[in-house]
Amino acid sequence: MSGAGAPTLTVDGRGLRVVVVAASWHTQVMDGLLDGARRALGDAGVEKVTEVRVPGSFELPVAASRAVAAGADAVVSLGVVIRGGTPHFDYVCSAATTGLTELSVRTGVPVGFGVLTCDDEAQALDRAGLPGSGEDKGYEAAQAAVATVVALRAALPDGDVAGRGRYELHRQLRGL
Ligand code: DLZ
Q1: For the segment 39-62, what is each residue's pLDDT rounded down to a tens digit?
Q2: In which residues is 5-amino-6-(D-ribitylamino)uracil bound (predicted)?
């Protein structure tokens, strides 16, 4: 997927509670993604930021789910998955993507998708927001999550009712 055509966003996220869930594989790339997410949240004025580290990208949906249940206004998910010689890549990517998408759609809480799914490490480094990288996917994911919360609140300002519905739905999903 080309990074061309990315929007220029200016976002005011003051007062929002944002949880960053990050996997631990591929440290150098992940450090770049985390730094990008922190910069984006700082640029948006978000002060209430919690970071949760999980082992791999497969564990991102459950961490994001708990973050939503704990009251996050937005979640930023960060992972680095690099293709190997077995179908494992496809299962981890699919589980992370499906889990994060379903969580976001069912609860109404935006989840920024900063999970790199790459053929090799060079592709990942080029998207990590490091010196010499062409793209900054951690920054983009965090900015997108905050921008979506702000856009939805502005367009659908029924925050309290929507919020109660969201928590009730999430409790149902968890069987509480
Ligand atoms: C097992 C595994 C492999 C082979 N590769 C990656 C990877 O490139 N990126 C990543 O985030 N996680 C990887 N994992 C770990 C799985 O996501 C998961 O943590 C384990 O299967 C344990 O549930």
Answers
A1: 999 999 999 999 999 999 999 999
A2: 25, 57-59, 80-82, 113
